[in-house]
Amino acid sequence: MKIEPIDKLLLIPLKRFISNSTTSGIVLFASAIVALSLANSPLKDAYHLFWEYTFTIGFGDFLVSKSLHHWINDGLMSVFFFVIGLELKREIMAGSLSTPKDAILPIAAGIGGMAFPALFYLLLNFTGTASAGWGIPMATDIAFALGILYLLGDRIPLSLKVFLTALAIADDLGAVIVIALFYTSDISSISLLVASGFLGVLIAANFLGVRNTIFYGIIGIGGLWMAFLLSGIHATIAGVLAALTIPASVKLEDKKYVSKMKSLTNDFEQSAPNDVTLLTSSQLHILEKILLYSKAAMTPLQRLEHAMHPLVAFVVMPIFALANAGITFSSNFFENLTSTIGLGVILGLTFGKFIGIVSISKILVKLNLASLPEGVSWQHLYGVAMLAGVGFTMSLFITDLAFVSSTYVIQAKIGIFVASLICGIGGYFTLRNAKILPAA
Question: Do 35 and 129 sit in the same domain of this protein?
């Protein structure tokens, strides 16, 4: 195959950069640094005002007006949750959550890693409006945590990466449930009924064999997401529900696909050459069939997940970080850091996450209800438990749902940054010094 200069100099390196497992975490970190820099520069007023710009969508009397900040958190982050839903469905069907034996340890550890941080937070903020922040330290930022893990390369067994992924997905599911049940405004029964109708349409379409992803996009965004936006239940939940309705079966099974590909490639080889760079009509027709059959051999779920990962990693999450990570540090930084909210978040993400994940894992292994993944030592698990305390994206997201007071928001965000830094560094060096166990 001929490699053009543009491919060699730009497209191939760019594709390699995007596919690198550590890249999304690096881009997310860079976006947070840019936001912090702007929020503490002479442009800080312009930076904050920009996200408060309001615009409206809709028609006639059906209008929705929100600030740019809210459109990002309610709309753009729904795309993030949609991909989380796709990952969750795939893992449950044929991944690390597909069998009780494989799923019990990461799920139980994930539950412990959510419950203990909330308890640590509530120890310092049991009453008053500050108590609403108990969900903030429950979340794990899967992009950052996995990014740090992949920085260690071959020092880390593959089974540990799978375990952290399963743990983070279980954690994300828990966060979705918490948001749906506890971080909602007044619920509109009519809008919720409309949302149920659209969800029913999506489920019926899956059952009837509709595989067109554009159809699911129109009904999922134009119907389900908009209805949730008006219902009082956070609109990001619509992203997860829509993802769970995406078909996860192939239209053309692998054996038939292989047979057709052999036949088509043979036809292509036997077709008369054109002796120019253009294809003949016969060759073009054969290639169109190959594309059609290749699409039929893939599940819509996996096609969407694969296609949307770069969008989420390099557009959605960086924009979210730019809009939410910009804290203007003032002279009372240490006062905010040592507030009950700041300390509650720090204690929850550092000690709560670690104690919850490790203690539940120890109990399950001790009772022979689960075992550590192959090649994984307890020191590996300690490192992963620390990395789980990196709660950047989801913690920032829940902060804006939990608090109306800008002071509380700043205190929580400072706690998130400090705790994530501690957990990221601590987890990295703990794992760096861990030894891979020999295979059994």
Answer: yes
Closest CA to 133 of 141, 125, 143: 125
- Are both 50 and 161 inside the same structural domain? yes
Distance CA 136, CA 118 (A): 8
Q: What Å distances lie between residue 233 and 89, 132, 184, 398, CA to CA?
A: 22, 16, 5, 14
- One domain, residues 147 and 172: yes
290 with 321, same domain?
no
> What percentage of residues in the chain have a pLDDT greater than 90?
34
Q: In 3-state terms, the chain is what percent helix, strand and coil (to 5)?
A: 75, 5, 25
Secondary structure letter of residue 155 according to DSSP = G
Please report, in angstroms and rounded to a whole number, the separation of the first and last CA atoms in the chain: 43
In this structure, the answer to whether residues 319 and 358 fall within a common structural domain is yes
Structure tokens at 345: 């978040």
Distance CA 220, CA 195 (A): 10
Cα gap 55→67, rounded to integer Å? 6
- pLDDT at residue 17 greater than cutoff 60: no
Boundaries of domain holding 273: 254-296
> Are 146 and 31 part of one and the same domain?
yes
Higher-scoring residue by pLDDT: 327, 202: 202
Round to whole Å and give the CA distance between 400 and 412.
Answer: 10
Cα-based angle 131, 382, 417 (whole degrees, multiple of 5): 45
CA dihedral sign, ordered 189, 195, 196, 198: positive
Neighbours of 223 (CB within 10 A): 19
At 230-276, the pLDDT tens digits run 777 777 788 888 998 999 888 888 889 999 999 999 988 888 777 77
Number of domains in the chain: 2
- Domain match, 33 and 156 both: yes
